[in-house]
Structure formats: structure tokens, C-alpha cells
Design a protein that fits this description.
There is one protein chain. By secondary structure, the protein is mainly β. Helices cover 7% and strands 42% of the residues. It contains 13 helices and 87 strands. The strands form 16 sheets. Strands 21, 23, 28, 29, 30, 32, 33 and 35 form an eight-stranded antiparallel β-sheet that branches. The radius of gyration is 37 Å and the shape is globular. Its main location: membrane. It is a single-pass type I membrane protein. Disulfide bonds join 873-900.
């Protein structure tokens, strides 16, 4: 075949043009022999207005069973011509070996008709082929008894129409083995190298690659092994893995078998089905196995193997549409019909629902239907009869399944694959009329209450007569619609798995979805972390001290880590502990046999590095108590003890941030006991001494090993303790720059965001428009810009044409205030968020390009496409979990300066708990409208005390914007809907009542969430999401929370995943809720299961209640006359939430809890309490109309020599007074020796 010329005229005249009446035209090319095709070119018909603008390309070895050729990204449509003379050249992303090519036009000239001239480019292809009939094999026998290798390269190509079969097997007496086999249409490799541990066959684990490999087409396999490192490649998919065990060599005895295992009874071998199909170009470490067999070499034994691939191919057809595809076939002769009928066929699909077969019965309108429902088969006939699911396994797994349906002998029998038949006995024989319908039916033939079948069928047999599908295609038999013949056009959309971070891929015929349960990530492709990036970020949203999962690299490859966030100090500290918590005593160690302690942190080295590098400062305390145990040799300065850093490097300094200085902190601070030494312990005294140091050089933290080598002398001893790693600050949160010139921009390397990208940042400006960032490719691009004062746009092109997602604000965004932007693109969808405005989503085409190819630099604050640059400030720019150092890049760029002027541009938290800082002409103000807190800086908790009949109901004006109201009839739609719905619920409460209703959220469709305390005091979260199902209940913590103490609850749902935090426990459960109607606190009435709890209401204190961006308690206080707020019963502002820190502090000190809560419960009062040390021992806040009653509430609550002192303040909401009572020491009667 000649080499291509891009603008060569394929033929001076003529061309192919089908008749106008041809319903399914195609052009087929016979290359006369198998060729390796690398490219195709097309032209329109000569001197005409006829051409093809888009086409499909199919290939086949025999001209019967065809497979669609797909380019990169799985694109099945090739770009053709725009006129009749220009040549459209398409180079194949992967060459294909084939004899036949078929061009199927999809779009053509709008002003003419189909016209086509084609040219095919490539080269001749030769191969050595062997045919295996399922009972044959090739044996390659070694010259010696066994063969041991540390490097192997095995390559072959195969094709098969069976999903099972052994391709390669070898084993050794010491336990080594290698097996390559087809299993369920995938390729599985079992490999074990030299290992002393016994491994039984039941524990053998396979590495699996590929899918749908039983499609009767050629697939290439390469196994490359060097020691333990293995690459397994099937077609274009490569999996790299490392074998287990201690050995590096593979030892195989006597022989390798190909195509099967000739001796199934041999000990230790797999009892598997032999391969049935063809293998070509089989090489083992450079040896052509098939060539040796063809030449009858003595080291090869070929049993029943032929050297040509001539076995027949099975012809299938594809049902393309889930709504309109069908095939009708006539019944057999009437005599056979009087005795019933039998049908048999094979099918494969990814869909869980669809009509497989239907037949009309007499009398009308009865019918018999064979359906897929929820991935199982069932059969219905008449009006009331239904045979339930007959299959013990799913049938939407992409494999071929065989169905037999027999209505003869007064019974209906349904058999699936090799399972036992399901039978229904009949009183009389079924009588059918009309045609048989496969996959669906036309509107005139029957009503289609269910989805039509979408998938492949083959080997259709009616009453023992095989159906020739070619006759159906030619119109000689039956009728059809939306079918594709001679091919099973199934594809695995989960190969490769485009779900990130371990998300599980689910697919239907047209699309795929990701199950992110348990991954810690959310979104359509599990791209977005559900956790904050740092403790500082948790502090900003108002979280108290506690254990939190943080994700330092956001949507990057690293997972989350569990840390303790200390919010009580001015700085927010992140604490990472290790396995050695207490002091360690060491004796008898020397340099020859040192004591070595390994410190294990609950995070990988990469996760620790990400956390440390993102922090402003980190340190770790080391305490070394010694008696005749030195840290350094005083003669030559050689270290006797040392520690290893995060990279395993030896470190000999014991304090400060100056590495390489062999000194302790006392030397740096000039306060050592003996100033002749650099460490207290180096004085080598027989009395105890201590060297304490703070290690603060970030690049060396944390300490990974501790090595002690000088405790082997008489009376020599050491006790050391390594503190936890402590870090503070988040360097990314206020990394800001200012742009003063439209022509200026910051330049960074090209974005590597082929499959997914998330971009987030803050901006403030007074300009009307400007580009925030842009990265261009040859034709692809990605851009985020302020396109007008109130509109932010996110635009990109991945090869399907430009896409624009826009968010419009009702207020101008160029108001010199900070605004938040987050844009995300993945293979499923694109989204854009601006501040708290509703998300905007745009679905990606199911069969379009999805890889973003960029080749230029990333411009921030400017553009390479001559668009208007940005004027203003940008901070905290993060792309795919990587925070860009804008300030550092600004130091070398003209027109850009580090930092941003204004009160709200510093790293200090001026506004707390998600409050927004607003610039003023002479200062700043905090906008607390989106926070559950109040006060000048959004730090004052908004709390209320509820009586048994009290409640607050907040009604939304319209369905809450983050809750998606989408159809859930189809599984794909349901998954799409669930991936975009989200809630964020947070509140604190104190109560001694159980059961109790805490919070409920309901929708117009009677869906709801209810958060309650059960009768045992445990927290329960109820979800009622589907009307045909009973509610789901999730209990994240089983302990009694009705204990009179303050508890903080946070519930976050992203897509299908529900994450609940109660104190320090993080738990998850999947589910979904849509279209919010109203939210209630304290009382509501839903299902019978929780009706009794709802009728009890709530008695206690609720504070800091937030549902997404709505704070109902604040709304009740500030908008009492609003129609959106309904208040029932007595309700009074309280201060229960403000006691949280006091209670936590008290519990940490180990003080005994008072019994105030029990007294309050007994008298049905609303009480919050805490205990303190010092003068004030007990603080009680209560609501009462009677001052004297307060003393009966708390009899004898003050210790001896103390008295109860109360102050009151009138409450303006109800007729009641606020009493704050303290037990105060009677100082006149207290002696100096008495305890506080």
C-alpha cells in the first residue's frame, strides 16, 4: 500500500454514491489479505456536491463479525470532508490488523448526497497462527529439569468467543507458578515467585486486566517481568504491580503449556477450562513457540493443534435504542404453535432493565413478556401471573447469557445459563397470535411500559429453527428498527476506570457513574475531597477542638489523615501523634548494638510532607533524661545517639531550627549545667540530668527513628520521650497578589489536567471584566474570567467545541469585596460555583472527547489570547490540590505586587465561623448572614431553650438550590442526581430528655431527614428518600447523649455519601435527598416509626444550628414577623452553647460531673451547666418565673462554707427571668488551709 500524501487526489473521476432509497448505505473494502492498517483518507465524489462529513469505521477478518474502530477517548466517529475535493486524512491512534474495512456514513453534504472516495494506508502483516479446539495444547519442554529466570518477556495475540480458558500455565515443585487465563471475559494473571511460606490454591490472587475479550477479535498481550516488578499489558491498557514473597526468580519444572493444562489431575494445577480460539505470534523469551511447533521441533508437543484460524464466527446484532429498538420475527407453522412454542437466544448488556421478548396471547389483550428488572430475569403473562426472578446472578454484567423459554407440555419453563429451570404449571395450553418481538415492539404491535432492550443478541432459535439475521437485515424475514447487524457494539465504559481515588465504576449501555462510598471524596468522578485541607480551614467554618480528617492536597492523589485540631489557643495547632506515647527506658545499648525505636505515624511519608510543607511552622519536642549516658563522645565529638528524619537521614542536633549543629538547646541558650559541654548529658555524671529540645526545622520533621547507643556501662541509663508533631498556620489561605496593569500576568508551567481539574480562588476587583486564568493548547483551552460585573464564566474545549458555564449574581461582583470561585471539569460534567450562589452544572457528552490537551503556559491574571487582563487581587489559588505561590512569582513580575491592600486581606481571622469580611472606608465589618453565629465578629453563639411544646420551623421560598430535583427512574439519572445533591447540617445541643426530636428537614415530595435521640439516648439520623421504601436509619454513636452535656453534631452529605461527626467519631453512610421544603427544630410529624419521638418534641438547649447557608435560630430571633418563620410554644434565648469550652476543659482535667442535669430533668426545667475549679465551682443557668423555686431546684449544691449567689436579668421574649447562680466561697469563714 503506498505511503500517504496529505493532499493527494484519490481518484481523478468518479467515486462511490449509493442510491437514495438505500436505508443503510455502507462502503466495504477488501484488502485481499490481513494488513496492518495505520490510516485512512476520504474525499467526496469527483466534481459534485456529494461528500461524507462524518463516518464510522468497522473492521473484520472474515467480513461477518465486525467491530467498530475507536480513536483516543473512545471516539467512534471519524471526521470526514467539508467539500468534494479536499482530502480528509485520519491517522489511527492504534494500528489494526484486518482484511475488511467498512465505512458507514453518519453525516453528509447538506446540499447534496453521499459521495466517497477512500484510500487505506499501512503495510503487509504476517503471523504464525495456532487454532485450539478446547481440548488441545502446545507443550514447550525445557532442555533441563527446571528453568529458573529473573527476567521474562511473554507476548501473544489471541481471539476467542468464549469467556473462559487457560492461555498459559507453568509451575515448579518449590511452589512457583505462572498462569494466564481468560475469566469472565477478562485476562487474569496468577504469578508466585520463590517464597518459603506455603500458599494454598484457595489463596491465590489474580491480577486482572481487560474486558469483553470474548468478542471474536484479536487482542494483544505482553507480560514483562524483572525480579518482582511486572508489567501486564492487554491491548492499550497496562497494569504495573509487584509480586509478593522474598524471591526474585521464577522456577518452572519440565515444561510450559499453552492453550490449556493437559493433565487436570496433576497436583497443584488449576482445574480450569482450556482455551478455545486462536493464538498468533506466541513468543516466550524470544522463542517463537508456534514456529517451532509448525516445524515439528522435538522440544514442542502439539496435541490436536492446527495452524490456521478457520473456526466460524458467531454473527450478532445490536439493539441501539432503549426506547424504539425492536425485531419482530414470524412464528413457526401452526401445528407447532398449537403445542406451544420454544425460543432460545443469547444476549449481553450493561443495562439493568429492559424488554427481552414478548408475544401476544389469545384472547387479547393478554401477552407473555420476558423482562430484565433490577438486573434479574422475570416473566409475566396474562394479567396477574408473574414468575419471579429466576437467576441467582446479575445479567447486566456484560457477559453473554443463554436463555431458554419453553411453553410446551402445559407449562412455562425458563432457564438461564446452566442454572436450574423455573417452571409454572398451566391448566391449558397458551395460544399465541401475531409475531414474536425481541428487544421491544413497535407502537402498533404492543404498548411498551418498560424500557426496550439495549444490548446485543445472537443465536436466536425459534422452535428449533435458527434465525438467519442476514435475512432480517435484507428484509427477507420479519421486521426491525434501530438495529445494527453483524456486530455487537458493546464497550466497557469502566475500562479504564475514570473514577478517581478508588471510586467504584458502574455503567449502563450509554454512560457510567462513580460510587464514591468510603473513599473520602465526592462528585461525579470522586474528584473532590469531602474534608478540609487543614485545621485552620476547620476553624474558619466554626468547628471546635477535636479530631478531624484533613486532606492536605485536596483533590490530589494523597488521601486524608486523622489529626487533632486544637482551637483553644490563639494559633490553631495541628497535632499528629505516633505509636510511642510514653517515656522509654533504655539500658545496655552500645554503638555496636544500639537501641532503635521506630516511630509510626498514622500517615504516609507523602501525607506528612504535604501537611508540614503547607504549614507555617512545625516543631517536635525531644526530652532525654540521662544518667551516665552521653549524646556525644566528648573526645572526638562523634555522636553516641541520634535520630532519623522523615527521609531516613541521620540527624545529630537536639534542638532549634539550625540543622548540622551538634548541640543541645542548653548550649544554644547558654544555660547548660556545665558550660564545658554542649549538652547536659555529656557531662557524664552519675546523677540524673535532662536535655530538652524543640526540633523546628520543617524539612527534617517528623522524627522517624530514635537511636540510643551509650547505656551499656555500669549504672548507665536513659529515659527519652518524643512528643507529637505540632504544626500551625496554613500558608495557602492568604497567599495573595495585586494586579495593577492589564498587560501583566503571572506565568506558571502548563496544567496537567487531562481528565479532571478543579480550580478555586478568591478575588476582589472594581474592574468590569478580566481574565482570572487561562491555559491554551493547539485547539483545546481552559479559561475562568469575569465576563461582566455580575457574571463569572468558566469555558473550555476538549475537542467537542467550546463549552461555557456561567454564574450570574444578582449583585455586582466588582464591589471591592472578596468573592469565592470554584470551577471543576471532569469526564462527566463541568460545574461552577461563585460565593453561595447556586451551582451551575453542564453534562459532558457521553461519547465525546474527554481529555484536555494543553501545551502552553498557564497565565494567571492575564491571557495569551488577547483578552482583557485582570485588575484587582487574587488569593488562595488552588488547582487540583496544589496551591500556587502567587506571592513568590509576583516578586519577579512587573505590574504585580505581593499581598493585597485592605483590612480584609491579612492572615488574621477578623471574622469567624464562616462570617464574611466586608471592606469599609475606614475599617471593616463582618457579614454574619451566612453564619449560625452573631455579634460583631460572628463569634457569639445563637442559642435557644426549648420547652416540650416548643419548635421553630423555617420554610424555604423555593427548593433549596443545592438540592437537585431530577428524575430517578433510570439508574443513570439517579446516580447523576445523587452526585450533585448535598447538605451541610451543624448544631449543638444539651438535653436530659430521651427520646427527643432535634431537627428535621422535609420536602414537597414527603422526603425527609430527621435527627433524633432514641429512647436509650443514642443519636439516630433517619432518611426517607424513596416513597416505595421504608425509611433508612443511621446511628453514628450508640452512647447516651441525653446526659445534660453539650454535644456538637455535624452532618455532611455529598452525593451518595453521608458523613457524620459527633465529638471525635467520623462515620459514613450513603443516601440522597432532593428538593427541600421546610426545616423544623424541636418537633415534627412524619412516619409512624418516629411519630412518637416527634410528639415528645425537645426540651433543652439548641445552639449554632446551620442547614447549608440557612441559620434557622437566627432567623427566628431576627425575623419573628416573617411568614418564613413559625414559632410554637415558649422559646427563649439562652447561652448553652457558650459553655462548650468550659465543659471540655473540665472533662480534660478529670473533674467529677455534677448531677445538675438530673435535677433539671426531674423538674422539667431547661438547664445548661458546667463545672469549674477555683472560686466558682458550679455555674447554672436556668429559666424560671419564680426566684424561690430556683433554690428548690438545686438543694445542697454548694459545699460547706459556701453559699448560692444568683443574679437575674429579664428576658424580653417571654415573661421570664434569667438567673445565673454561682456557688461562692464564704471567705470570712474560710481558713488558709482549706481547699478551694
Amino acid at each position: 500500500v503506498p505511503s500517504p500524501a496529505q493532499e493527494r487526489v484519490l481518484a481523478p473521476t468518479g467515486g462511490w454514491s449509493p442510491t437514495v432509497t438505500d436505508p443503510e448505505p455502507w462502503l466495504q473494502v477488501d484488502l485481499r489479505d490481513r494488513m496492518e492498517v495505520t490510516a485512512v483518507a476520504t474525499q467526496g465524489r469527483y466534481d459534485s456536491s456529494d461528500w461524507v462529513s462524518r463516518y464510522l469505521l468497522l473492521f473484520s477478518d472474515t467480513g461477518q463479525a465486525w467491530k467498530q474502530l475507536r480513536q483516543g477517548d473512545g471516539i467512534g466517529r471519524f471526521v470526514g470532508n467539508v467539500n468534494s475535493e479536499a482530502v480528509a486524512h485520519n491517522k489511527l491512534s492504534q494500528s489494526v490488523r484486518t482484511r475488511f474495512l467498512r465505512f458507514i456514513p453518519v453525516d453528509w453534504s447538506p446540499s447534496g448526497w453521499l459521495g466517497l472516495r477512500v484510500e487505506v494506508y499501512g503495510c503487509a502483516y504476517k503471523s504464525d497462527v495456532a487454532d485450539f479446539d478446547g481440548r488441545s495444547s502446545l507443550l514447550y519442554r525445557f532442555n533441563q529439569k527446571s528453568l529458573s529466570t529473573v527476567k521474562d518477556v511473554i507476548s501473544l495475540r489471541f481471539k476467542s468467543h468464549q469467556a473462559e480458558g487457560v492461555l498459559l500455565h507453568g509451575e515448579g515443585q518449590r511452589g512457583d507458578y505462572i498462569t494466564l487465563e481468560l475469566h469472565r471475559g477478562k485476562l487474569a494473571l496468577y504469578l508466585k515467585l520463590d517464597d518459603t511460606r506455603p500458599v494454598y490454591s484457595s489463596s491465590r490472587v489474580a491480577v486482572t486486566v481487560g474486558s469483553l475479550l470474548d468478542d471474536q477479535h484479536w487482542h494483544s498481550v505482553i507480560i514483562e517481568r524483572f525480579n518482582k516488578q511486572v508489567n501486564l499489558t492487554v491491548d492499550s491498557h497496562t497494569l504495573h504491580f509487584q509480586t509478593k514473597g522474598e524471591g526474585d526468580s521464577l522456577e518452572v519444572d519440565y515444561e510450559l503449556s499453552f492453550g490449556g493444562i493437559p493433565l487436570p489431575g496433576k497436583p497443584g494445577t488449576f482445574l480450569r477450562k482450556n482455551f478455545h480460539g486462536c493464538i498468533e505470534n506466541l513468543y516466550y523469551n524470544g522463542i517463537n513457540i508456534i514456529d517451532l511447533a509448525k516445524r515439528r521441533k522435538p522440544q514442542i508437543y502439539s496435541g490436536n493443534v492446527t495452524f490456521s484460524c478457520s473456526w466460524p464466527q458467531l454473527v450478532a446484532c445490536t439493539f441501539l435504542s432503549s426506547s424504539s429498538s425492536f425485531m419482530s420475527l414470524p412464528m413457526a407453522v401452526p401445528s407447532a404453535i398449537m403445542e406451544g412454542f420454544s425460543i432460545r437466544f443469547q444476549f449481553r448488556t450493561w443495562n439493568s432493565d429492559g424488554m427481552l421478548f414478548s408475544a401476544r396471547l389469545s384472547p387479547e389483550p393478554q401477552k407473555l413478556e420476558l423482562q430484565m428488572s433490577s438486573s434479574r430475569l422475570n416473566i409475566k403473562y396474562g394479567k396477574i401471573h408473574k414468575l419471579p426472578s429466576v437467576a441467582g446472578h446479575r445479567v447486566n454484567d456484560g457477559l453473554w447469557h443463554t436463555v431458554n423459554l419453553d411453553t410446551r407440555r402445559l407449562q412455562i419453563t425458563l432457564t438461564l445459563d446452566n442454572e436450574l429451570a423455573s417452571t409454572i404449571e398451566q391448566w391449558e395450553q397458551l395460544e399465541t397470535q401475531g409475531s414474536f418481538y425481541f428487544g421491544g415492539c413497535p407502537p402498533a404491535g404492543c404498548q411498551n411500559p418498560n424500557l426496550a432492550f439495549q444490548g446485543c443478541m445472537r443465536l436466536i432459535i425459534i422452535n428449533g429453527h435458527p434465525i438467519n439475521l442476514s435475512h432480517v437485515q435484507q428484509g427477507l424475514l420479519g421486521n426491525y428498527k434501530e438495529l445494527q447487524f453483524d456486530t455487537c457494539n458493546i464497550r466497557d465504559r469502566c475500562l479504564p476506570n475514570l473514577c478517581q481515588h478508588g471510586g467504584r465504576c458502574w455503567q449502563s449501555w450509554n454512560s457510567f457513574s462513580c460510587d464514591c462510598s468510603g473513599t473520602g471524596y465526592s462528585g461525579a468522578t470522586c474528584h473532590t475531597s469531602i474534608y478540609e485541607s487543614s485545621c485552620e480551614a476547620y476553624k474558619v467554618i466554626g468547628s471546635p477542638s477535636g479530631f478531624y480528617s484533613i486532606d492536605p492536597d485536596g483533590s490530589g492523589p494523597l488521601g486524608s489523615i486523622l489529626v487533632y485540631c486544637n482551637m483553644t489557643e490563639e494559633r490553631v495547632w495541628t497535632v499528629m501523634t505516633h505509636n510511642v506515647t510514653g517515656p522509654i527506658r533504655v539500658q545496655g545499648s552500645s554503638l555496636q548494638k544500639p537501641h532503635v525505636m521506630v516511630l509510626n505515624y498514622s500517615a504516609s511519608v507523602e501525607q506528612l510532607y504535604a501537611m508540614i510543607s503547607g504549614s507555617e511552622q512545625c516543631h517536635q519536642e525531644v526530652v532525654y533524661n540521662c544518667r551516665k549516658s552521653r549524646l556525644f563522645n566528648t573526645k572526638d565529638g562523634h555522636p553516641l545517639s541520634w535520630w532519623l528524619d522523615q527521609k531516613g537521614e541521620k540527624r545529630t542536633y537536639w534542638g532549634g531550627f539550625l540543622p548540622g549543629v551538634q548541640q543541645c538547646s542548653c548550649s544554644l541558650e547558654e544555660n547548660c549545667v556545665d558550660m564545658n559541654y554542649f549538652c547536659n548529658c555529656d557531662a557524664d555524671k552519675d546523677t540524673w540530668a535532662t536535655d530538652t529540645g524543640i526540633l523546628s526545622y520543617k524539612d527534617h520533621l517528623p522524627v522517624s527513628h530514635m537511636v540510643i547507643g551509650d547505656t551499656n556501662r555500669t549504672d548507665s541509663e536513659a529515659i527519652y520521650q518524643i512528643g507529637p508533631l505540632r504544626c500551625y498556620g496554613d500558608k495557602s489561605m492568604w497567599n495573595a497578589v495585586s494586579f495593577y496593569q492589564e498587560s501583566s500576568s503571572l506565568v506558571f508551567p502548563t496544567l496537567q489536567v487531562e481528565l479532571a481539574s478543579d480550580i478555586s480562588f478568591y478575588f476582589k476587583t472594581s474592574a468590569f471584566s478580566g481574565v482570572f486564568l487561562e491555559n491554551l493548547g493547539h485547539t483545546d483551552f481552559i479559561r475562568v474570567e469575569l465576563s461582566s460585573p455580575a457574571v463569572v464564566t468558566f469555558s473550555f474545549d476538549v475537542g467537542n467545541g467550546p463549552v461555557v458555564v456561567a454564574v450570574k449574581s444578582h449583585l455586582p461582583l466588582n464591589d471591592r469585596q472578596w468573592h469565592y470561585v470554584r470551577a471543576e471539569r471532569n469526564v462527566k460534567e463541568a460545574s461552577l460555583q461563585v460565593d453561595q450562589l447556586p451551582f451551575r452544572f453542564l453534562d459532558a457528552p457521553a461519547d465525546g472527547h474527554y481529555r484536555l490537551h494543553l501545551n502552553s503556559q498557564l497565565f494567571v491574571g492575564g491571557s495569551a489570547s488577547e483578552r482583557r487582563g485582570f485588575l484587582g487581587c487574587i488569593r488562595t489559588l488552588t488547582i487540583n490540590g496544589v496551591t500556587y505561590d502567587l506571592e513568590e512569582r509576583a516578586t519577579m513580575t512587573a505590574g504585580v505586587t505581593s499581598g493585597c491592600p485592605g483590612y480584609c486581606s491579612g492572615s488574621s481571622s477578623l471574622c469567624h465561623n464562616s462570617g464574611k469580611c466586608i471592606e469599609k472606608s475606614s475599617g471593616y465589618a463582618c457579614d454574619c448572614s451566612q453564619s449560625a453565629y452573631g455579634g460583631p465578629t460572628c463569634r457569639e453563639e445563637v442559642s435557644m431553650s426549648f420547652d416540650r411544646g416548643s419548635s421553630v420551623t423555617f420554610t424555604f421560598k423555593e427548593p433549596f438550590p443545592t438540592m437537585q430535583n431530577r428524575s430517578s427512574q433510570a439508574s443513570s439519572n439517579s446516580r447523576k442526581s445523587s452526585s450533585r445533591a448535598r447538605e451541610d447540617v451543624a448544631f449543638s445541643f444539651i438535653t436530659s430528655q430521651n427520646p427527643a426530636m432535634l431537627l428535621s428537614v422535609s420536602t414537597f415530595g414527603q422526603q425527609y431527614i430527621a435527627v433524633i435521640l432514641a429512647r436509650n439516648g443514642s443519636l439516630q439520623i433517619w432518611y426517607h428518600l424513596q416513597m416505595h421504601r421504608s425509611p433508612d436509619m443511621f446511628s453514628p454513636i450508640l452512647s447516651n447523649l441525653a446526659d445534660g452535656q453539650l454535644h456538637r453534631v455535624r452532618i455532611h452529605r455529598e452525593g451518595k455519601d453521608l458523613y457524620v461527626q459527633v465529638t471525635v467519631d467520623m462515620l459514613s453512610k450513603s443516601n440522597n435527598i432532593n428538593n427541600t421544603n421546610h426545616l423544623s427544630l424541636g418537633r415534627d410529624n412524619f412516619e409512624e416509626e418516629i411519630f412518637q419521638v416527634g410528639s415528645e418534641g425537645f426540651m433543652g438547649c439548641l445552639s449554632s444550628v446551620q442547614f447549608n447557608h440557612v441559620a434557622p435560630l437566627k432567623a427566628a430571633l431576627l425575623n419573628r414577623g416573617s411568614s418564613l418563620v413559625t414559632i410554637r410554644g415558649p422559646l427563649v434565648q439562652s447561652n448553652c452553647g457558650a459553655l462548650s469550652d468550659s465543659i471540655t476543659s473540665h472533662n480534660l482535667r478529670g473533674n467529677t460531673k455534677t448531677s445538675t442535669g438530673q435535677a433539671v430533668k426531674k423538674h422539667e426545667q431547661k438547664v445548661a451547666y458546667t463545672s469549674k475549679t477555683g472560686k466558682v465551682l458550679t455555674v447554672v443557668t436556668a429559666i424560671s418565673n419564680n426566684y424561690s423555686k430556683l433554690f428548690t431546684l438545686f438543694p445542697s449544691k454548694c459545699y460547706r462554707h459556701m453559699h448560692l449567689q444568683c443574679s437575674k436579668s429579664k428576658n424580653n421574649i417571654i415573661v421570664a427571668y434569667f438567673y445565673t447562680c454561682n456557688c461562692v466561697c464564704d471567705t470570712l469563714r474560710r481558713s488558709k488551709q482549706s481547699s478551694p
